[in-house]
Amino acid sequence: MRPAYTTAHCELELPEYHPFPKYKYHGVAEALRDVLEVRPAPPIPWDTLALAHEAAYLQKLRREGLCRAEAHKVGLPWSQSLLARALHAAGGTLAAALDAMEGGLGLNLAGGTHHAFPDHAEGYSLFNDVAVAVAYLRAQGFRGRVLVVDLDAHQGNGTAAFFRDDPSVFTLSVHAERNYPLKKEPGDLDVGLADAIGDVDYLAALAPALEMAFAWRPELVFYNAGVDVLAGDRFGRLRLSLEGLAARDREVFSWVRKAQAPLVVVMGGGYNRDRHLTVAAHAQTYRLALEALGRR
């Protein structure tokens, strides 16, 4: 079976009332054990993080962590368990990227922390796992064109900032325009959607965006497959059905297959009021990836 990486083994200390959906990492891992070899994500080395993040920021996290104001901006209370989990989540994306380079498809059942900037944390994101994985591959000699397809309901502001001056990386973000973050960082192609858009309008907006992005002829694709676009999500503001989500994912995987590019799938957001729907939606994405691309 194809490997996939999980942070389900990582404890995260949070108050009972906190909306961060730590339940879903274990739930998705369990839901996919029949089709994937689910492995604990390894922690990413600090010197690998330093290929992308600024040294002063990493040193601060190691020595003192985040102050209360900084933790408020992240939306999570600072703890050593938060740091450890972030290290494993980024390590899972790097491991998945290496799998993709070797076998065409890499899967991290975590990651997609696209709000982290080179020098600070925001929005549930300490490290930008995709930016770190790209930096590592570059350090190992990979010089191909990279496409980041970010279909989380929130704009990938940190990812856009990381790659703003990098002509070898194209960033696409399709998101709810009035959603967090209020200040968007311009990427190569940003598609901001009105609140409450459903399947038909969403897919109509997505199709030309994917066509434009893949016209760039990527040689490696990262897919942030957030399911916070579903109706009923606490933070998503959009109203896709589970069937609409499947159509979204199939469209992405179809373009990847035509491009004949390796693909890395990271989890992204999902905060549905129905916990079972959050888990089912994430698991559906990975099953569809295997169905479309698992035989490469």
Automatic annotation (TrEMBL):
GO molecular function: histone deacetylase activity; hydrolase activity
Pfam families linked: Hist_deacetyl (PF00850)
GO BP field: epigenetic regulation of gene expression
Keyword annotations of the record: Hydrolase
Family annotation (InterPro entries): HDAC_classIV, HDACs, His_deacetylse_dom, His_deacetylse_dom_sf, Ureohydrolase_dom_sf
Domain Histone deacetylase: 18-278
PANTHER family for this protein: HISTONE DEACETYLASE 12 (PTHR10625:SF19), HISTONE DEACETYLASE HDAC1-RELATED (PTHR10625)
Similarity field: Belongs to the histone deacetylase family.
UniProt-recorded name of the protein: Acetoin utilization protein AcuC
Lineage of the species this protein comes from: Bacteria, Thermotogati, Deinococcota, Deinococci, Thermales
